[in-house]
Amino acid sequence: MDQIADHFPHEDLEPSEHEDYPHHLTTEEAQRLADFYCIDNETMRACKEEFDLAHDEWMCFRQVHSLRHSQPTVVDPERSIDEAVKHLTQRQKRQATERKAKRKHRRERDKAARKWWELEEALEEAATAFEAESYDPPRLRVRMAEQVETEAAGVLNLQDLHLGARPADAEGFSVKAYRESILRRVETALEDAARLRKLDRIYVIGGADLVHSDTAGGQTASGTELEMACSTSTALQHAIQLLAQVVDMARQVAQEVTIVPIHGNHDRTEGVAAAMAAGQRFHSADNVESMDLAERQYATYAGHLLCMTHGDLTKKRMRKMGEIMRSEARGLYGRTEWSSLFVGHLHHKAMDMVDESGRVIYQTPTPVPIDSYHDREGYVGSRKGIQLVLLDRDDGGDRIIHA
Fold first, then answer.
1. What is the pLDDT of residues 47-91, one digit of tens each?
2. C-alpha separations of 26 from 6, 51, 56, 67, 352 in Å
3. Has this prediction a pTM greater than 0.70?
4. For residues 366 and 182, is the Cβ–Cβ distance under 8 A?
5. Which residues are CB-contacts of 164 (< 8 A; sequence separation ≥ 6)?
């Protein structure tokens, strides 16, 4: 034959007797083919398809090199024994690493699938409950001031409500009663706001530990076991109903309402699902819109730049929020004069915090009752409430309402 491949063991075999041998393969390709069959234990059909070989070519190649499953073979006759052992060792190490990576990927995929299955089950339960629900939208009783000239936007920071959490003193506690107490606080805040300002828009932050747990078994998104006053699916139903009622009330005092879904560290899935479900309730309403999912949500109102996030970053990362905002909202900085950051997570309110760039940070409190963990650790002194911040259109002023 005119051309014999380097990987053909021509010292022991007569090339003319093996006319179907795939001499067109390079030595590297031939070794990969041998590894594919001997180490990966792939089928003959897979080998032929992967390397585009005719049946006779593959059979001749397999015969010449005496290939067998689970019997690694080095096809290059020029390689020494040490080189052959080194190649096979490297191949086996690489294969072991690949198997480990595949197992890890499979575990993560299965875990993600389980979480979505649990979410789907919870949403189905919530949908079934809402089908039988007779919904009566709440009505505000607002006596407007005669001459309110200042226009403003409101940010209703409903983070850390933890619906479904079991308080340390659980006697007589019900999630429904807790939800209704939140609604009364929101009602008071919105009525006060309507007396103080002409409200162009209200941003309703939903998610961000709106639901206490994230799985059917009552764990956080990271798997921490929690003490629950009800099932996760029941807490999700309360969360959707609460947000729908809040949006209905906000529509009565503001020209437009925006639902802002934010991921939490307790309810990375459930809270934003509730916010999105509430948004779907108003999909045909002209004055209600819902933002897409994001770790940090950005919006502008007149000269204000707003960033809304849960705030569960490390202290080191939180100190860099200014840099993060400038990077993510680069195009908005040039069109705004004032910037504000709305966070939760710490369960207590903080008065106007201003960082080195003049950015105002609004830390919202929570109305959630003290659970056994916070009681045991001594976190018992924070004031309970919800926060509504009014941002004036013209002068950058603000007004904070804690209900």
1. 999 999 999 999 999 999 889 887 888 888 888 767 766 776 676
2. 8, 11, 18, 18, 71
3. no
4. no
5. 175, 211, 212, 213, 228, 229, 230, 231, 232, 234, 235, 238
